[in-house]
Write a structure and sequence with these properties.
Region (Disordered): 342-368
Transmembrane segments: 74-95
Number of helices: 10
Largest sheet: 11 strands, antiparallel
Protein name: CU044_5270 family protein
Helix content: 10-25%
Order of helices and strands: HHEEHHEEEEHEEEEEEHHHHHEEEEE
Oligomer: single chain
Strand content: 25-35%
Structural class: alpha+beta
InterPro entries: CU044_5270-like
Organism: Actinomadura rudentiformis
Radius of gyration: 20 Å
Number of strands: 17
């Protein structure tokens, strides 16, 4: 890790990365080259990727976590500090169908907290089953508002799926796959508005600091630099190093020890980062509540921890100042869970800071309020989705209501198996 990256990770909240940037970070830390490109400059399918055209968008249907072999508790994970701060990406629900999910609408703080602790207890009681290969299937996406004369509507763009597996032992191999999912209207109301606009097959939107075109097409899975000699270790964000599979599975489930290892900023800085900070005469800034959510998500998404350690992380998280449990909710695949949130300061629409963007369209400008949110499965405590939720309309989301999901990173499935995993053939939406 170079010193520029060390400083960038140590300080501040950089602009949220795009899904493609996060994918490259994942591929790099997962052993890939980061060259997992699904689209050309305008968002069309790349020449070397076969494209499958799909039909009209359907309303999201309740999903479930697929069950391949034994279950585990991890995902490919947000490994970059920026990605951990911003959470993952796709979005469900335009304003007509999106409920008001502000904390005040949920149960009382004690009832919500008790619900999460009950989830932790259920997780603790699950069998600690293992296999030869651990895999994770995750989906990203970003919300965009299409403004046309016939009426605005919301879509999911930057819509990708990633599949990764790793052998439990060194030499069992690793692989990372990706595919582009179709851009689509979000809800039946959005689909109706899309049809009134002529049912366009592509969507040109402002994304970060440029215009991007997303297509109603899907690509085939593309593998990125498989390593037949890899496996046997996992990167634990916060600890700053790779752990062997045995070390991961032997982590303490004590909430206090997990807090000391992962949720205290002074203990999260390795010797090299600490030296850079000393040279700059800077003090390490404490972790924000949202950063702690991101850290827990990264652990749950990156490594196959045991059900007891997952329970310990939930208990540690609920004790952190500024972290709130807001009760039951639904993830973007329709799965029920309990939501844990932390507020973010008002900020401009995702992308580079406003002063740097000189060509930003007027309708994209302006601040909005949001919070980071993790949704945990009610029965197992597994992380279903890491997402950003609108709390104060503004900027590009000025027409949306509180509760609108700005982006997400879904864990569609993860687990252990004794047979070499393969990406799923069916699409999630």
């Amino acid at each position: 890790m170079d010193e520029t990256r060390i400083v960038r990770e140590a300080y501040g909240q950089p602009a949220p990365p795009t899904p493609d940037e996060i994918a490259r970070a994942r591929a790099l830390l997962g052993g890939g080259s980061g060259r997992l490109d699904f689209a050309g400059p305008a968002g069309d399918a790349a020449d070397d990727v076969q494209v499958i055209t799909v039909g009209p968008a359907a309303a999201p249907v309740p999903g479930r976590r697929r069950r391949f072999g034994w279950r585990a508790q991890a995902g490919v994970g947000m490994v970059a500090a920026a990605a951990a701060a911003v959470t993952g990406i796709v979005l469900l629900g335009g304003a007509p169908a999106e409920p008001d999910r502000r904390p005040a609408a949920g149960p009382g703080p004690k009832a919500a907290r008790d619900l999460l602790l009950a989830v932790a207890e259920r997780s603790e009681r699950l069998p600690d089953t293992r296999g030869r290969y651990w895999y994770s299937d995750q989906i990203t996406g970003q919300s965009y508002i299409i403004r046309v004369p016939t009426g605005p509507y919301a879509i999911v763009g930057a819509h990708d799926e990633f599949f990764q597996w790793s052998g439990a032992r060194a030499g069992d191999g690793t692989a990372f796959y990706g595919r582009r999912l179709p851009a689509r209207p979000l809800t039946p109301a959005d689909e109706a508005a899309w049809r009134r606009a002529g049912s366009p097959g592509k969507f040109r939107v402002w994304s970060n600091d440029h215009f991007q075109t997303y297509m109603r097409k899907a690509s085939l899975w593309k593998i990125d630099d498989p390593d037949p000699r890899g496996g046997g270790s996992f990167f634990l964000q916060g600890a700053g190093t790779r752990f062997t599979t045995e070390e991961v599975l032997a982590l303490s489930a004590d909430p206090a020890k997990l807090t000391a290892l992962f949720l205290q900023a002074d203990l999260l800085v390795g010797p090299k980062r600490a030296e850079v900070l000393r040279k700059l005469k800077r003090d390490l800034e404490p972790m924000t509540p949202a950063a702690k959510l991101g850290r827990v998500a990264a652990i749950l998404q990156n490594v196959p921890i045991s059900p007891k350690v997952r329970a310990g992380l939930l208990r540690a998280l609920v004790q952190q100042p500024g972290v709130r449990v807001v009760g039951e909710t639904t993830d973007p695949l329709g799965r029920r869970g309990v939501a844990v949130t932390a507020d973010l300061p008002p900020r401009p629409s995702p992308g580079l800071p406003d002063p740097v963007i000189t060509n930003e369209p007027e309708e994209e400008k302006g601040d909005f309020g949001s919070r980071d949110e993790l949704i945990f499965d009610l029965q197992t405590g597994e992380l279903l989705s890491e997402q950003t939720v609108l709390t104060e309309p503004g900027g590009k989301y000025r027409t949306q209501r509180p509760g609108f999901l700005i982006n997400y990173w879904i864990t569609r499935d993860d687990g252990w198996t004794d047979t070499r995993p393969k990406p799923p053939g069916d699409q999630p939406f």
